[in-house]
Write a structure and sequence with these properties.
single chain, mainly alpha, two-stranded antiparallel ribbon, 1% strand
Length: 518
């Protein structure tokens, strides 16, 4: 069999349920659109035909490295099947034990049957598999009725307790569906009616006290519902409270972390990002160490940890002004991009964005330009979220200002008015590019922007922030970078010094407010 046929044969060997699970897995977790498209195309072929495959995907970027794309798809399929069958293993083991229980009962071997069902109950209970627990209780009831009735009362109590747990879970699932249904429709800006719907759900007694959530799943819903609502509200302190509670819940259940490590990484990312916003750097660094120690036995898990670790680590360096430490990670990030060719486009661009900011902040615009061009010249990255891509274009303008390419910087703004609209970027980004676009021309050359111009931009932005929420709710490096860059241009101070001063003032102000509130 040819090497190029291996992936095709693997796909053809899958059952319908396994194929369906893979597509759900790839969409929800790895978010690899190209992998799903390649999987579906190969599945439709009667026999392997690479030329036909290339005709189907003519013009697609991943065809340039088809062998790499196929290799990565093969890994994802095998990972998803491992997870699929490991998830089924507890169910299967309990089902097999109950089948053996039935066989032994039919042979009149009641004592042996009782041992089998007791073992099945232990496994189901440990996995919090309440449906299987009820099946076990049903067989236990049958056994007791054949021997004596003395323990039936306690068995009925156990059944009622499990049914109550199941009902509790279903109620929390319904509340989660109601809240996230509204949030999905509203995005980050719910209207008055949508907020009323959300707050009406939050008034449910089940969402006023976490002790009313009676199981792991119910408690996870409780914390996630509140964290999601507070995220849209912009209440960082509350997001921190609930994301931390969720992490503590997971870490109290290590089997859950082993069973679903990607869910743990995602939850850890949410919590640690909030630690960054709250300036709880000790907790952030402890969390990053936990992430590094987490067993990563698949490329998919390694990829998730790579993105989460470096994304948060660079944010911390950009926030505190520890730029040199941040630059030490750049080589490792470049290696990661090579190692994980299936990285989601948005994640790759966001991580690249932070590297670009580090190079700009350390006075290395040429390296920043190299990274910007790698994004802007890659057609496959142009369909990412519009605000992220526009920010890369703004950084491109800043780079050319640093390189003293003033004519080209102005050309970039004037030639791309669709991207640089007021409604497609932050207000400070808009102020900056608007002033670059209107720089005067003398002797057919754009006049370099003065320190006074940058101070004027900063003053106008500060006035804007006094009446608007921008710059207050998104208190992290991505939103604080541009004010710091403009200040460094207006004061002629190194950006590292500006950021460190800003960070120090922010910490002092935060400590003062804490003393006042206390």
């Amino acid at each position: 069999m040819k090497q190029s046929d291996d992936l095709f044969d693997l796909i053809k060997s899958l059952k319908k349920t396994e194929k369906r699970y893979f597509k759900i897995y790839a969409t929800r977790h790895s978010e690899q659109a190209n992998s799903v498209k390649l999987f579906s195309a190969l599945d439709k072929l009667e026999e392997y035909d690479e030329e036909q495959l290339r005709r189907i995907f003519k013009g697609e970027k991943f065809l340039e490295q088809l062998a790499v794309a196929k290799h990565y798809l093969c890994k994802i399929i095998l990972e998803s099947m491992t997870l699929y069958h490991s998830q089924a293993s507890a169910n299967l083991e309990v089902s097999h034990l109950l089948q053996q229980t039935e066989f032994l009962m039919n042979r009149g071997l009641i004592d042996q049957a009782a041992k089998k069902v007791a073992k099945a109950e232990t496994i189901a209970t440990r996995a919090e598999n309440y449906k299987k627990m009820l099946e076990c209780y049903s067989w236990e009831r049958t056994i007791l009725m054949k021997s004596n009735y003395k323990d039936l009362t306690s068995l009925f109590e156990k059944e009622k307790e499990v049914l109550n747990l199941l009902l509790n879970i279903i109620e929390y699932r319904q509340l989660s569906f109601q809240v996230y249904g509204v949030l999905k429709e509203a995005g980050r800006t719910p209207n008055e009616h949508q907020w009323a719907e959300i707050y009406n759900v939050l008034a449910n007694p089940l969402l006023t006290d976490s002790s009313k959530a009676l199981s792991f799943e119910a408690k996870a819903h409780f914390f996630n519902i509140h964290a999601g609502v507070h995220f849209v509200e912009g209440d960082t302190a509350k997001i921190y409270e609930y994301t931390k509670a969720h992490i503590e819940l997971l870490e109290q259940n290590p089997a859950r972390v082993r069973f679903r490590p990607k869910a743990y990484i995602d939850s850890l990312h949410n919590y640690l990002h909030t630690c960054l916003d709250m300036r709880y750097f000790d907790e952030l660094e402890i969390g990053l160490e936990k992430l590094k120690r987490l067993p990563m036995d698949t490329p998919y898990m390694q990829e998730a940890a790579f993105i989460t670790f470096h994304s948060l680590d660079l944010l911390m360096r950009l926030t505190t002004g520890d730029f040199i430490k941040g630059l030490e990670s750049v080589h490792e990030i470049e290696e990661g991009f090579e190692k994980y060719p299936g990285l989601q486009s948005t994640e790759k661009v966001i991580l690249s964005d932070r590297v670009i900011r580090l190079f700009l902040a350390t006075g290395n615009p040429n390296m920043a330009l190299k990274w910007v061009n790698s994004i802007l010249n890659d057609v496959s990255l142009r369909n990412i979220r519009k605000d992220i891509y526009t920010s890369i274009k703004v950084l491109n303008v800043l780079i050319h200002l640093e390189l003293k390419n003033y004519d080209f910087a102005q050309y970039l703004v004037k030639s791309d008015t669709r991207s640089f609209r007021k409604d497609s970027m932050s207000y400070l980004e808009y102020l900056t590019v608007r002033n670059i676009a209107t720089l005067p021309v003398k002797n057919k050359k754009v006049v370099p922007p003065s320190a006074e111009l940058f101070q004027k931009i900063l003053n106008e932005y500060q006035m804007y922030c006094q009446v608007e929420s921008e710059g207050q709710s998104n208190n992290h490096s991505a939103s604080s970078f541009l004010p710091a860059w403009i200040e460094s241009r207006s004061t002629q101070l190194p950006m590292e010094e500006v950021v460190r001063n800003r960070f120090s003032n922010e910490i002092q102000k935060s400590s003062y407010l804490e003393r006042i509130n206390a």
